[in-house]
Write a structure and sequence with these properties.
NADPH binds at residue 104. By secondary structure, this protein is α/β, with parallel strands linked by helices. It is 37% helix and 27% strand.
């Protein structure tokens, strides 16, 4: 039986999972692919580090051992970051090798060059694991749903923030306490900035938007706002309004351009994404033919991510068996502008501390009116002698108008602080 040989770049959490899964499924793969998969070499930083369960004879610290090995037909890149991953992938494609990657940072920034190079050399470049770990979304968008005009992609695509918000909602934790618990369980890194500030989700949304709308969206196009300012008080109001707060990646294809951003959203409890708890991820899409569809599951972790990587490897192996690599490459054939975020319209929830005296609400309403912001409802709570908490929910308003209004409100003598500004679905 034919053997398809693989070079694995990286043996961290995901790389170890890929190594395990390929070995675990070797007998099944022979039947489903018609060939054996064999990891021939593994690139690591330190060959002398002990790695339990890994054949040490496969280890190398020299990239050329893989690049110049003509038997290796598939390269799996799971080292992450921009460089040296980008150079290695480009060199592998130019050397006639197919590539599977889980590198969201690189693909969100440099995906066009990588896909164009793969197309030029007639090779596969697949990256299912780069967006939602074990949840299939790239292949469905490129293949299963290719007959649709996709207009909306909404996603909970960061398990760390979803876990934190779940604990805040269900157990009444403050953000810092929930973050510490997520770190203790290994869901959050020691430096959680990329997760809690929405950067990780932003990269994933850029990739999904590019594929869904057939037009290039890069990470710098994505407005990002994290969850660090969400408090237990905000969660309490969400419950009162029969909603939950989720960090959503939002991408929409509108007549005036692509709208794309990552930010906390007050989401009604009856929305399918509202029930996604703890570290699970989900992506909700709307297409003109399929209508609504949702993909749900584990968005990260050793084996879920390995599942997506190995699925791509099997796809490449099947293409090799029929000599048809490179058949599905870049699908960005359009050039749709990405809208300035200030021009996007959203509803807003504002919580503010104001002086408890007549006329304050009228002053606030006047500021809003001057900036084209319509008020949908007002709730006043926690009234004390000198101070009251005021919650205002707006109608849909342009982001730039809302920003201008809040800047003016902050300078008003009758307002102590604007405690929260959260978008509503």
């Amino acid at each position: 039986m034919k053997k398809i040989k693989i070079g694995l770049l990286g043996l961290g959490t995901v790389g170890t999972g890929v190594y395990k899964l390929i070995r675990m499924r070797s007998d099944v793969m022979e039947r489903t692919i018609g060939a054996q998969l064999e990891i021939k070499k593994i690139l690591v930083h330190n060959k002398n580090k002990k790695r339990e369960g890994v054949d040490e004879s496969l280890l190398t610290d020299n990239w050329k051992d893989i690049l110049e090995d003509e038997e290796i037909q598939i390269v799996i890149e799971v080292i992450g970051g921009i460089e040296p991953a980008k150079t290695m992938i480009l060199e592998a494609l130019k050397a006639g090798k197919n590539v599977v990657s889980a590198n969201k940072d690189l693909i969100a920034e440099e995906g066009r060059e990588l896909l164009d190079t793969a197309q030029e050399y007639g090779k596969d470049f697949l990256f299912e694991a780069a967006v939602a770990g074990g949840i299939p979304i790239i292949r469905p968008l490129k293949q299963c749903l290719a007959g649709n005009e996709i207009t909306d992609v909404l996603g909970i695509v960061n398990g760390t923030t979803n876990y934190i918000l779940t604990k805040m909602f269900e157990e009444g934790m403050e953000f810092e306490d929930a973050l510490r618990q997520a770190q203790k369980l290994g869901y959050a890194e020691a430096d959680p900035t990329a997760d809690v500030e929405g950067l990780d989700a932003g990269r994933k949304v850029a990739i999904m938007a590019s594929i869904a709308f057939h037009s290039r969206v890069v990470f710098s196009d994505v407005y990002t706002e994290g969850i660090t300012k969400i408090t237990a008080a905000d969660i309490a109001y969400a419950k009162e309004f029969d909603s939950v707060i989720k960090l959503l990646g939002v991408a929409r294809n509108t007549e005036s351009g692509i709208e794309v951003g990552v930010y906390p959203v007050m989401l009604p409890k009856d929305h399918p994404l509202a029930s996604v708890r703890e570290s699970f991820n989900a992506v909700f899409i709307h297409g003109d033919a399929v209508d609504d569809a949702m993909f749900y599951g584990r968005g990260a972790g050793e084996m879920p991510t390995a599942s997506a990587v190995v699925g791509d490897v099997i796809d490449v192996a099947r293409d090799l068996a029929y000599d048809c690599t490179g058949r599905i490459s870049c699908t960005c054939y359009r050039q749709i502008p990405v809208k300035d975020f200030g021009e996007i319209e959203n509803k807003f929830f504002l919580r503010m501390q104001v002086k408890n005296r007549p006329g304050v609400l009228a002053q606030i309403a006047q500021v809003f009116g001057g900036h084209k912001v319509s008020i949908a409802r007002v709730v006043q709570k926690n009234v004390h002698l000198e101070k009251a908490e005021l919650v205002i929910v707006t109608e849909r308003v342009k982001e730039r108008h809302m920003k201008d209004a809040t800047e003016e409100l902050k300078n008003m003598d009758s307002i102590y602080e604007i405690s929260s500004v959260i978008r509503e679905y």
